[in-house]
Amino acid sequence: MLDVDGDGRPDTWNYSRPGPDGRPELVRVELDLDGDERTDLWEEYAAGQLVRRAYDLDGDGRPDLILVFEGGALVRKEDALDAEGRAHAWAFYRDGKLLRRERDTDGDGRGDTTEPALPPAPETQK
């Protein structure tokens, strides 16, 4: 536990386990960003790299926005989470650029509409 903002109360919790070499390996970080003594941000790590970051944006104690990383790069954003933690909107990224957005309009947990974000590649001439 750490008191980063100096108010005398912990606001950062780091969780680790023994890594392959026996040294502690960070697996999760929880942060209280607004000083209300509730977690607002969760980060998960694998092999020392951030793989998931979740934000509670409305203060209800549940994630509302999730960012998923591979190799340190953002690959997916899950948004508009419901009470069960299911996303209803997704954005997909590659090389730091938005590829497409999907939205679940009927509540079945699958994207029903897709909006491309990149212009189509030019056709090659033969």
Short description:
The protein has no helices and nine strands.
Your description of this structure?
With 126 residues, this protein is mainly β. It has one domain (12-116). The protein has strands at 12-18, 24-31, 41-46, 49-55, 65-70, 73-79, 89-94, 97-103, 113-116. A 9-stranded antiparallel beta sheet has the order 1-2-3-4-5-6-7-8-9, with no helix packed on it. A hairpin with a 2-residue loop joins strand 3 (41-46) and strand 4 (49-55). The termini are far apart.
Largest sheet: 9 strands, antiparallel
The portion of residues assigned to helices is under 10%
Nearest-angstrom radius of gyration? 18 Å
Q: Element order, helices and strands?
A: EEEEEEEEE
Output the number of helix runs: 0
- SS class: mainly beta
- Principal-axes geometry comes out as globular
N- and C-termini, Cα separation: 63 Å
Side by side, the strands of the main sheet go 1-2-3-4-5-6-7-8-9
Task: List its traits.
126 residues, mainly beta, nine-stranded antiparallel β-sheet, 9 strands, globular
Topology diagram in text:
Blueprint: E1 12-18, E2 24-31, E3 41-46, E4 49-55, E5 65-70, E6 73-79, E7 89-94, E8 97-103, E9 113-116
Antiparallel strand pairs: 1-2, 2-3, 3-4, 4-5, 5-6, 6-7, 7-8, 8-9
